[in-house]
Design a protein that fits this description.
Layout lengths: L3 H52 L17 E4 L5 E4 L3 E5 L22 H4 L6 H7 L7 E2 L5 E9 L2 E13 L5 E9 L1 H53 L14 H50 L6 H25 L7 E4 H10 L8 E4 L7 E4 L1 H18 L4 E7 L5 E7 L33 H11 L3 E6 L5 E7 L4
Parallel strand pairs: 9-11
Antiparallel strand pairs: 1-2, 1-7, 3-5, 4-6, 5-6, 6-7, 8-10, 11-12, 12-14, 13-14
């Protein structure tokens, strides 16, 4: 199934079906157990009534059995012989013996009298009279929980299922008898059948209702998702990233999905626009040195004595530096992660300053002799950041360029580069970190770089888990601070 609605409806239906089947089986089992227990209790009552009569030495043929049609009774002795049954009992099963015809017991002819030999004979007299007299005292009924079992019985030509209870009784003569009394299970079977039939009819109807309701609710819930999908398909077809998907007024997951999608479209639009601007600016910056270099080479080819070799070299160097900057920005945009080699930032600053022999203004270095300022990162990229900051300061300073290294909060290290130039207006302090941005109006090669140095410096700082900010310097110019986390 490719439809979420179909899968949701099917899943809900299966879950409800399993729950209803489990609940229905539980109800049927509990109902059957209760009704069977009630039938067993009725059978136990009848069995104890008959056992009580046997314990009182009531003769077998005089036992009173209530509701003989609904409660068949069978009495057996210790040897399993049937000594008494209820009236009209024609067949029985589930009591240990299926006999229904009483058989005289060899131990006694029944409560209230002995065997045939004891009750009659040629000799008479007091001894015979005394043997015919019931034994004094009374028997007892077993008070333990009776044994229960299911079986069938045929009473007056009708066969039915019964719950049998077996109770033992001891006559005054010491004879142990077992009374098997049954209670009909027709009520239990009828009730269970009725409930089972209702469940079999109601379950499919209920499942159809659940499936239909789930289908409708899911379709209504997923309607905003379909709107989002349709709008995204239109945006993909038109390539118009300024369009946005509709945001539902709810505060659920779908609304958050729509907002996140719009935020993604906004970021994507900004990224594409930034890429377009980057390509346009890069083309503009590359066009000038390439055109100048071509012009000089063409003039040199026609008039070798007029070839400006130093100018051609300068244009080539500038073109090479610009290509290196563009390559580094491309690597940073691709998500290249810097190396995490430990290095001393103070030593790196000293090394970079010592290599700047041709600067217009000498750089004043302030690095404490005590302690090491270790950070983890790419030596080449961090050296590039320091070099770009010093180049920017040299370009705008009047007479002073300073660089210092100090420990900072949270175990970090700060490199500060300041100058005494015109400074950066507060409104422009974030804009100068954008690519190809220069605050001066002129864009000739004499005015400085292509506007990539500070953008590269901030990107590298961010990739190293740090930050690069600009503020006013005490000398009146700009002060750039590079914060990097200390090496762990």
């Amino acid at each position: 199934m490719r439809s979420v609605r179909a899968r949701a409806a099917l899943g809900a239906t299966v879950v409800v079906a399993l729950a209803l089947i489990g609940a229905g089986l539980s109800v049927l089992l509990v109902l059957r157990a209760n009704l069977t227990g009630q039938a067993g209790l009725q059978a136990e009552v009848v069995a104890r009534e008959v056992a009580g009569q046997l314990a009182l030495d009531v003769p077998y043929d005089r036992l009173e059995m209530r509701d003989e049609e609904d409660h068949p009774v069978q009495v057996t002795d210790e040897d399993g012989r049937v000594v008494a049954v209820s009236r009209d009992l024609q067949a029985i099963s589930g009591t240990g013996t299926d006999r229904v015809a009483p058989v005289p017991s060899p131990t006694a002819g029944g409560p209230g009298g002995g065997s045939d030999d004891d009750r009659g004979g040629d000799d008479g007299g007091d001894d015979d009279d005394s043997r015919a007299t019931p034994a004094p005292g009374r028997g007892e009924v077993d008070s333990d929980k009776p044994d229960f079992g299911n079986g069938t019985a045929t009473v007056d030509g009708e066969t039915a299922d019964y719950r049998f209870a077996s109770v033992q009784a001891t006559t005054p003569a010491g004879v142990t008898l077992t009374v098997h009394a049954g209670a009909p299970l027709a009520a239990e079977q009828e009730a269970v059948g009725t409930v089972r039939g209702a469940m079999l009819i109601g379950l499919p109807v209920l499942l159809l209702v659940v499936a239909g309701v789930t289908w409708l609710v899911t379709r209504r819930a997923l309607r905003p998702v379909e709107d989002i999908r349709r709008e995204m398909a239109a945006i993909t077809a038109s390539e118009d990233l300024s369009r946005r998907v509709p945001e539902p007024g709810s505060r659920d997951e779908i609304a958050r999905l729509a907002r996140t999608t719009n935020e993604t479209l906004t970021a994507l639009e900004a990224s594409v626009e930034r890429q377009r601007r980057f390509v346009a600016d890069a083309s503009h910056e590359l066009r000038s040195p390439i055109a100048s270099l071509r012009t000089q080479l063409e003039v040199g080819a026609a008039h070798p004595e007029l070839l400006d070799v130093p100018g051609a070299v300068a244009d080539t160097v500038r073109l090479q530096a610009l290509a290196a900057d563009l390559l580094l920005l491309a690597r940073l945009d691709a998500g290249e992660r810097p190396g995490l080699a430990p290095l001393d930032l103070g030593a790196l600053v000293r090394e970079e300053v010592s290599q700047r022999t041709g600067d217009r203004i000498a750089v004043t270095v302030s690095v404490p002799d005590q302690g090491r300022f270790e950070v983890a990162g790419s030596r080449g990229q961090l050296a590039r950041v320091i070099g770009n900051l010093l180049d920017n300061a040299e370009r705008h300073a009047r007479s002073t360029v300073t660089v210092s290294v100090r420990a900072a909060e949270r175990g970090g290290v700060v490199v500060a580069v300041g100058d005494d130039g015109a400074g950066v207006p507060p409104k422009e302090r974030e804009r100068i970190f954008e690519r190809f941005v220069r605050l001066d109006d002129a864009r000739t090669r004499d005015d400085g770089g292509a506007g990539l140095g500070l953008a590269i410096a901030r990107d590298v700082a961010v990739r190293h888990g740090g930050r690069l900010t600009v503020d006013g310097a005490r000398e009146g110019g700009a002060r750039f601070e590079l914060w990097l986390p200390g090496a762990r």
